[in-house]
Amino acid sequence: MKKKLSLKLLLLGVLVVFVGIILAESLIIKVKTTSLKKEPVFYSDTVAVLNNGEQVEKIGEQQGWYKVRTQKGQEGWLHSSAVQEKKFSLLAMNKQVKSQASAEEVALAGKGFNKQVEEKYKANNPSVSFVVVDRMLKLKVTPKQLKSFLEKGKLGEFGGGQ
Hints:
The protein has 5 helices and 9 strands.
């Protein structure tokens, strides 16, 4: 009797784990790079740097931030603007049908352009310099610098607003 009960409990446990894995919400990094934060604030220490296309598992949520676990087992917080839900692709006649955009396509579309539009714009506007844009993309602000900026400017949680 005890063996049957133990077997049933074991099977129930395996089923619960399996359902949990299936129902776990997967997210994809949709920006070039983003920082996995220790706490759900932009100026928190960085746990890891994640790149476009990497997949994480959502394990919690708080005011626009997702608590996630990386494929390497690291846990931390990502802002919702840096990720998108992973969609499943449909299959038709043993051929994969593209039913979603890539994370890069979504990020570019959100900015209102794609690689072809950008190249055409550059070709049609040869006098426009992208040096400043390229320089801005290389700027790095530390969490400490960001927190100091917010405190001095009495912005966000340091100024009573959110």
